Amino acid sequence: MSALAPFRDQDQKSSWLPDWAAKGTVVSPQALSTNLNKAVFINPTLPSGTSITLVQQPKGPEPTIRAVGHGEQLERRLFDALAAMKIKTAEVAMHLSGDWRERLFGYLDFLHDAEDWDEQDEPAKLSSFTTFLRMTTHLKPAKRPGMGLTSAGNLVATWTFDNRHLTIECLEDDELLWSVAVPEGERTETAAGRCRVQRLAQILAPYEAQRWFANA
User: Fold this and answer.
1) Residue 60 to residue 50: CA distance in whole angstroms
2) In 80-95, which positions are buried (b, 16+ CB within 10 angstroms) versus exposed (e)?
3) Which single residue of 2, 9, 167, 216 could bond 146 by disulfide (Cβ 3.0 to 4.6 Å)?
4) pTM of the full predicted structure?
5) In this structure, what are the phi and psi dihedrals at residue 87, rounded to the nearest 5 degrees?
6) Measured CA angle at 121 (ends 116, 127), to 5 deg
């Protein structure tokens, strides 16, 4: 079992994650300004890697053409990943409350902030997010998880209750990596494994999993 590393949680400023699930950056691509003298638009008729930037000109609003900067390519990459996940969420909207959808979108934006993004990391994979959605609709937790993102693009969900920690990394095709850390006297017992979404509740039952998922 790997050492535990600090991590963000929805209900407190720090929680815990195993090293394989920890990621230091968590934050959303900047929205393009609606002010035309600042907005950058990709023009599909131009060669790849070219954009048009509309700027105010003394003699008229003639657009100038320049190469897309590395930062703009990163923002678009993050924006595309976010858009794909939000479209996927719409497919299962009937299973999610409006409050949870809003909070989920806020988490995703926070995890993909271009300003604090490590360029070596991957945005969240749609396959991982799909597994996350299936897991949450299957478990129906009253307490929403804290969320994180691995450098490989896998979403991580965390729950904490009374110093008991549950961490789940969502892989593709409904596969999960789970890890628990629970106090036992003066020691902390840990366990970890891999399973499919449909088996998770049964596997976590010996650890009183409902105490993680129920609102206090």
Assistant:
1) 22
2) ebbeebeeebeeeeee
3) 9
4) 0.67
5) -65, -45
6) 115
